[in-house]
């Protein structure tokens, strides 16, 4: 197990431990499930260097974060009954057909939705959640820069992007994990 993967598992453990201190059990459940999917995605991406299942599992992590932000609204429940089955079909189709670009597009749409929904509806630790999501997005920009030359068949490379992936990703996951804890009053 790599040190990076161990860090992600530790973030999941932090979120799981936050159960005893969290403000909302429902919020905690969506966050912890999202981080569990993140551990699963990183298992495929970091340990096995397998992009297709890794991106597929990450899609479901973002769905969890979207539902976390929506809270107990009726809107969230209605969206869940439509989005989750449709997403499952799209992810399954892309996975079976080896359509990584379709899956990556689905992932990007979910990520943008995640950020928008959290900007509007997030009630618990919004600054921490949004900072974590912005760092997560910066990580993904570097993932694209690192992998783009391979998919375009160009000689240009961005070797620094690999390091920036982790510079942004590790703190993003730590902030998301810590977002279940109640904020300290000044």
Can you put this structure into words, describing what you see?
- This protein is mostly helical and 186 residues long.
- Helix content is 81%, strand content 0%.
- The protein has seven helices and no strands.
- Helix 3 packs antiparallel against helix 4.
- It is globular, with a radius of gyration of 16 Å.
Poorly predicted parts? none
Shape: globular
- What is the N-to-C order of secondary-structure elements (H for helix, E for strand)? HHHHHHH
Average pLDDT rating: 88
Q: How many E strands? A: 0
Decide which structural class fits the backbone: mainly alpha
Gyration radius, in Å:
16 Å
State the end-to-end CA separation: 39 Å
Total count of helical runs of at least 4 residues: 7
Q: Beta-strand percentage?
A: under 5%
Number of domains: 1
Helix percent band:
over 70%
Could you give a short account of the major beta sheet? none
Secondary structure blueprint with pairings:
Blueprint: H1 3-17, H2 25-47, H3 51-70, H4 74-96, H5 100-121, H6 126-152, H7 159-178
For this entry, give a set of tags.
186 residues, mainly alpha, 81% helix, 0% strand
What does this entry show, briefly?
This protein has 186 residues and is an all-alpha fold. The protein has helices at 3-17, 25-47, 51-70, 74-96, 100-121, 126-152, 159-178.
């Amino acid at each position: 197990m790599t040190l990076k993967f161990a860090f992600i598992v530790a973030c999941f453990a932090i979120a799981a431990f936050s159960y005893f201190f969290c403000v909302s059990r429902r919020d905690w459940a969506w966050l912890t499930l999202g981080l569990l999917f993140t551990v699963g995605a990183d298992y495929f991406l970091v340990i096995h260097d397998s992009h297709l299942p890794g991106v597929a599992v990450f899609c479901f992590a973002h769905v969890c974060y979207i539902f976390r932000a929506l809270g107990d609204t009726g809107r969230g429940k209605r969206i869940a009954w439509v989005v989750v089955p449709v997403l499952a079909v799209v992810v399954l189709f892309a996975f079976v057909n080896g359509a990584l670009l379709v899956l990556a597009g689905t992932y990007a749409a979910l990520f943008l939705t995640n950020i928008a929904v959290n900007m509007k509806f997030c009630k618990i630790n919004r600054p921490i959640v949004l900072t974590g999501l912005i760092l997560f997005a910066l990580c993904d920009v570097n993932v694209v820069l690192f992998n783009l030359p391979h998919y375009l068949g160009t000689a240009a490379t961005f070797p620094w992007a690999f390091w920036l992936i982790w510079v942004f990703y590790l703190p993003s996951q730590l902030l998301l994990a810590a977002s279940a804890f109640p904020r300290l009053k000044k």
